[in-house]
Amino acid sequence: QAYLVESGGGLVQPGGSLRLSCTTSGFTLGQSAVAWFREAPGKEREGVACIGNDMSPKYYHDSVKGRFTISKYDAANAVYRQMADLKPADTARYYCAAAGVGRCYGGHYRPDDFPTWGQGTQVTVSS
Questions:
Q1: How many CB atoms lie within 10 A of CB 11?
Q2: pLDDT digits (tens, 9 = 90+) for 61-95
Q3: DSSP 3-state of 74
Q4: Which of 6, 19, 28, 88 is the most buried (most CB within 10 A)?
Q5: What is the rounded distance in angstroms from the CA atom of residue 61 to the CA atom of residue 107?
Q6: What is the pLDDT of residues 20-31, one digit of tens each?
Q7: Backbone angles phi, psi at 126, to 5 degrees
Q8: How many CA atoms lie within 13 A of 39 on its CB side?
Q9: What confidence category does residue 105 fall into, taking pLDDT thresholds of 50, 70 and 90?
Q10: Rounded alpha-carbon distances, angstroms, from residue 57 to 22, 35, 92, 107, 123
Q11: Which residues contact 88 (CB under 8 A, 6 or more apart)?
Q12: If DSSP codes are grouped into helix, strand and coil, which group holds residue 72?
C-alpha cells in the first residue's frame, strides 16, 4: 500500500523556522509531482506548494512566497519544505500528497488531483 509520512511539525514562535519532511512507503517519487497542503480549523484545505516530478517547476501560494521553499530528492524518496518567518496565520495541519506527472497543473492544483496522502503534521505558530 502506498502512502506518505510527514514529520517535523511542532510549536514555534512567530518569526521562527521549521523544516517539514515527507517520505514515501510503497512507491518512489521519481515520477511523482508532490504538493503540500494545509488545513486550519474551520477552513478548507489549501495548497501551499507544489513541485513537479523532475524537481521543477515549483509553485507557491501567494501567502508563503519568499518564506517557504519546497525541494525534492528522488534518491531519498523525500520531499522537504523549509518554512521561515512563520506567522500565526500559518498555524495548521500540513499534509504532503503525491500524484502523477504534471499534476501541479501550472499552480492550479487541488486536493482532489492527488490520490496519495500522508496523515499530516501539526504546525502551531504562537508566542
A1: 12
A2: 999 999 999 998 887 788 999 999 999 999 999 99
A3: helix
A4: 6
A5: 8
A6: 999 988 888 878
A7: -160, 145
A8: 10
A9: confident
A10: 18, 12, 25, 9, 25
A11: 14, 125, 126
A12: strand
